[in-house]
Design goal:
The structure holds two protein chains of two kinds. By secondary structure, chain A is of the alpha+beta class. Chain A is built from four helices and three strands. Chain A has one domain: Winged helix-like DNA-binding domain superfamily/Winged helix DNA-binding domain (Arc Repressor Mutant, subunit A, Orthogonal Bundle). Chain B has a six-stranded mixed beta barrel with strand order 4-5-10-7-9-8. Chain B has a six-stranded mixed barrel with strand order 15-16-21-18-20-19. Chain B has a four-stranded antiparallel sheet with strand order 14-22-13-23. At the A-B interface, helix 2, helix 3 and strand 3 of A face helix 1, helix 2 and helix 4 of B.
């Protein structure tokens, strides 16, 4: 099955979602997305980092250096209050968008 | 602060870009490593593992570059580059840089100086607490329809009846000799009441203020407060002077304190410059000499009670009963309550709006000149800019470069402009410093002034950068490259912009020249009218005699003074008087023709003069004779002026008529002299008469005035010599010596000078602008002229062609300028004398001057056009 391309906003939304269950480093986030999407999404992993830096500048997440599982120095990202609010906004918007698109796709196009 | 977070992040990124880069490296490196590890675990060959990991990750370097772009203030780094590039390119063309910077510095400097002075003139800052409640009380004579001083009996009555003020107080001034180390100097002494200091609410800078006891009658004047400036000058600011005694007015007085520098000059009033304050009892104003119509005049200041308005206070004072001692001709008085702020405002402050307009014109001319120079340079750089665009530079980057350039130029100009402003203060201070209210500090680059300069600079920089940037923004890349390679002329729109700038400059210069021209015309007429007597080389020796000698000892003293002064070198004429001419602006006497009460009384003013007075001041005798040959004890005689003669005897011969001066004095008219314009040339002369000095009634205060006409300009030491010789004949007399001048024209003189300076500068700048544009366009069209000559055009035709174009631009500008002046010069109306703001001669003259100057500015470029060598021009590209 061909992998699905991601829009920028969607990646940010998923990062927010993943971080909502606790601090995580970049590698961990990419693994979580793979696992949760059942390997269906194609992420250029580098752009994940760009998204992380961007979100950090927007103040949605904060970063701190810490110890990884294999005892290496790694940067851990964590949701801020603004990030949590942003996640809610995204989730609402996403639900409505999905419902609307689903509505359109389910109906047979009218006969010409 | 969620809004500021991105800002901080970017700022941090800018400051620690290296650290962030290293962290990014580490983080991404670890990710690839983990990926590689995972691939190996999945069973890939060792060669493939890392490759696959990197593929999965994406182009690391591109990512890093993108991140660096996104996080940083790239443009700020770019700005640094642009800045360095600008400095390099400006140092390569010093001529251009210098002319732009000089033009702008002139504009910015002049604007800074004028705006800062006007700010102080129009919005003075006052040194008093809660100054909004502080008022001056003055009087207005409704009979004569003019302001009038507050006389002591009125002040006493105001104090007794008012209920509006927290404190009210008065001050009178007196001249005294201050003798330090045997050297006498004339000092202005203010006698102040306790209420006055209370109303002002200011404290001393050093020492202590007067106590209640020191204001008691009897102990008056035993202690003194010094003016800060006088303390600096006379006592070198030595604090040890406090507690010492000074010999002032023949008495030893103890210095107890120094007044603050903010009170170096007193608000309002004629004698705002003072030296010493002495305490004065309120009761001292109560004693009135009923025979003396010259009452003590009091300068009154009060502080309003909370909730009382100016109008209420004024209405209340108006109900004060008129004291019985006031003479009939001084009974039609209405008190005026005036905010103290108005007393601080510069005289003729509405003229500052004219000056601001004028300096605005000058500024606009200097800016449009700079725009022109910048545009010319942009055009010659079009190829460079085109190549930048072609190589992928964005328009935004180009615009940024251009704005950085103009910013660098204006900041340089601003720095230089501050120096110009310093010079401007000196010039303006000399021209109009006298108008400024007390407390104005000239030439201080204070914070508001620097802010003004900064704002002016930044605004100018952006404006100047946007002009060429707007061009680039609209330019077609291909056209730029094509034209740059071998253009015959530059774009029409650019040309229009430059022509517009020339027209604007000509128009603004016209407006300023017309303003200056009108002032010149008006001033000429004022001077031709004159003040009625000859002020050149006429001096007044003024001796204040606070000790009140008897009539006999007064004449003894004046004889000795005249004899002493006659010994001065170059004395041509000398005469006694009780005051210099031009000190009356109001009526102090009423006269009527003897035996004709039906004709009514005429208000006029009186001078008491010695023999030879008219000759000494050069006042022409119309008919009759002067006081020569008349002696003490002879019947009373008088000389009247033209204005009084016209009022009293429109038809009859005034000689031999007798006038009743009141106080049982009747005099025979023996002569008629010309009018002295007491209030200045601008005002019509008032009725006035002269009586011989020995006919004077005995006033409370004696003054000794000796008027002298010298053969030429006196030596520098003359004043000190006069003072010393007077001190030797009477040490109690306070001596001053000054030249008689028509002081009334100082507003006109200042306005004239300011507008002249501005209009000459404007003309210079506009000429430069026109010259630059014409020279540039001739240089651009060199090839065209070459072709024309090659095809047989006569050099004369080309010359005329260029001249015509330049003159057409100038003429258009002049026409616009004339139209605008028609409306704008109405603001000058108040200072113009017998000159219409639409004076046709001025308008014609200015038009002629501008067109001649424009022709001269175009002549050189036109000659160059006519002399183009066709072969050289055609071969050039």
């Amino acid at each position: 099955m061909a992998k699905i391309d991601l829009l920028q906003g969607n990646l940010e939304m998923m990062i927010l979602r993943i971080l909502s269950s606790g601090a995580q480093h970049g590698w961990g986030i990419s693994q979580r997305i793979h696992v949760l999407s059942h390997e269906a999404l194609k992420i250029e992993e580098g752009s994940l980092y760009l998204a992380l830096y961007r979100m950090q500048r927007k103040g949605w997440i904060s970063a701190e250096w810490g110890q990884s599982e294999n005892n290496r120095r790694a940067k851990f990202y964590e949701l801020t209050k603004a990030g949590r609010q942003q996640l809610e906004t995204h989730r609402d918007g996403w639900d409505r968008l999905c419902a609307a698109i689903a509505q359109v796709m389910r109906k047979e196009p009218a006969e010409q | 602060m969620p809004l500021l977070r991105p800002l901080f992040a970017r700022l941090a990124a800018l400051l620690r870009g290296g650290k962030l880069d290293r962290e990014m490296d580490e983080e991404m490196g670890w990710h690839v490593e983990m990926e590689t590890e995972r691939n190996r675990a999945a069973g890939m060959t060792p060669d493939d593992t890392r490759c696959a990991a990197l593929r999965q990750f994406g182009g690391v370097d591109q990512l890093k570059e993108r991140e660096r772009d996104a996080r940083g203030w790239m443009w700020l780094e770019q700005l640094g580059k642009d800045f360095r590039f600008t400095i390099r390119s400006l140092t390569k063309s010093p001529g251009y840089t210098l002319s732009v910077v000089a033009t702008l510095a002139l504009g910015i400097g002049a604007t800074t100086a004028m705006v800062s002075i006007a700010r102080q003139a129009l919005l003075p800052s006052l040194p008093f607490p809660d100054e909004g409640r502080l008022v001056a009380v003055e009087e207005f004579n409704t009979l004569e329809n003019q302001p009038c001083p507050v006389f002591a009996p009125r002040y006493v009555a105001f104090r007794a009846h008012e209920n509006s003020f927290l404190a009210i107080g008065g001050k009178r001034s007196e001249q005294m000799n201050l003798v330090v180390d045997g050297q006498p100097s004339a000092r202005t002494v203010f006698w102040v009441t306790q209420g006055l200091l209370r109303a002002f609410g200011v404290n001393v800078a050093l020492g202590r203020t007067f106590t209640e006891d020191e204001f008691r009658q009897g102990s008056e004047g035993a202690v003194a407060l010094l003016n800060f400036r006088m303390w600096q000058q006379q006592f070198s600011g030595d604090p040890a002077v406090i507690g010492r005694d000074i010999l002032l007015g023949g008495k030893l007085r103890r210095v107890i304190g120094i007044m603050p520098a903010t009170l170096n000059s007193w608000p309002g009033g004629l004698s705002k410059w003072w030296d010493v304050c002495l305490p004065c009892a309120e009761e001292s104003f109560d004693t009135v000499d009923p025979h003396n119509p010259y009452f003590e005049t009091v300068h009154v200041v009060a502080r309003l009670k909370p909730g009382v308005t100016f109008q209420q206070a004024q209405a209340e004072l108006a109900l004060t009963p008129m004291p019985a001692v006031m003479p009939p001709f001084l009974q039609a008085l209405t008190p005026r309550v005036i905010p103290i702020r108005d007393k601080y405002r510069a005289e003729a402050s509405q003229l500052f709006w004219v000056f601001l307009g004028a300096v605005g014109c000058l500024y606009a001319i200097s800016c449009s000149n700079a725009v022109n120079l910048i545009l010319v340079r942009t055009v010659s750089r079009r190829r460079e800019l085109g190549v930048r665009l072609a190589l992928g530079g964005s328009r935004r980057q180009l615009v940024r470069l251009l704005i950085v350039e103009s910013m660098v130029l204006t900041v340089l100009a601003g720095a230089l402009g501050l120096l110009v402003a310093k010079g401007g203060y000196a010039v303006l201070g000399g021209l109009i410093g006298r108008w400024l209210g007390s407390g104005t500090q000239l030439g201080v680059l204070d914070r508001p002034t620097l802010m003004i300069t900064l704002v002016v600079c930044l605004g100018t920089g952006i404006l100047l950068g946007l002009a060429p940037a707007w061009r680039i923004g609209n330019a077609n890349l291909q056209d730029v490259l094509k034209e740059g390679a071998g253009s015959l002329g530059d774009s029409r729109r650019l040309q229009r912009l430059r022509n517009g700038a020339v027209v604007l400059q000509a128009a603004l210069a016209t407006i300023l020249l017309i303003g200056g021209g009108l002032m010149v015309r008006s001033f000429e007429r004022l001077q031709r009218t004159g003040v009625g007597f000859d002020t050149s080389n006429t001096y007044d020796m003024f001796g204040d005699l606070p000790f009140g000698p008897s009539a006999d000892s007064f004449f003894d003293l004046s004889d000795r003074a005249v004899a002493e002064l006659r010994r001065l070198p170059g004395v041509q004429a000398i005469a006694l008087a009780n005051g210099p001419p031009m000190r009356f602006g109001y009526f102090s006497r009423m006269v009527q023709i003897e035996g004709r009460p039906d004709l009514g009384k005429i208000g006029c003013s009186e001078d008491v003069v010695g023999p030879g007075y008219f000759a000494a001041i050069g006042l022409p005798l119309r008919i009759g004779r002067d006081f020569a040959g008349i002696h003490r004890g002879d019947p009373r005689v008088m000389v009247i002026n033209d204005a009084l003669a016209r009022r009293l005897f429109p038809q009859a011969n005034p000689l031999g008529q007798r006038l009743d001066l009141g106080f049982d004095k009747v005099c025979e008219i023996i002569g008629v002299v010309g009018d002295v314009h007491e209030v200045g040339a601008r005002q019509a002369p008032l009725p006035h008469y002269y009586v011989p000095i020995w006919q004077r009634t005995s006033p409370k205060n004696y003054f000794l005035h000796v008027l002298l006409r010298l053969a030429g300009k006196p030596d520098a030491g003359l004043e000190a010599e006069v003072r010393k010789s007077m001190y030797s004949i009477e040490p109690r007399m306070v001596t001053q010596f000054w030249k008689l001048e028509d002081d009334s024209l100082f507003v006109e003189r200042g306005t004239l000078a300011v507008l002249q300076v501005m209009s000459v500068l404007a003309l210079l700048l506009a000429t430069m602008g026109l010259f630059a544009v014409m020279a540039y366009s001739v240089a651009q069209r060199q090839r065209e002229f070459g072709v024309r000559i090659a095809l047989g055009a006569a050099p004369d035709v080309l010359l005329r062609m260029v001249l015509r174009r330049g003159l057409a631009l100038a003429a258009l500008g002049v026409a616009i300028g004339l139209a605008v002046s028609w409306g704008a010069t109405q603001f000058l109306q108040s200072v113009l004398y017998e000159t219409s703001p639409c004076d046709p001669a001025t308008y014609a003259g200015v038009t002629a001057i501008l067109l001649v100057v424009a022709a001269v500015a175009c002549w050189l470029p036109a000659r160059r056009a006519a002399k183009v060598d066709p072969m050289a021009a055609l071969r050039a590209e």
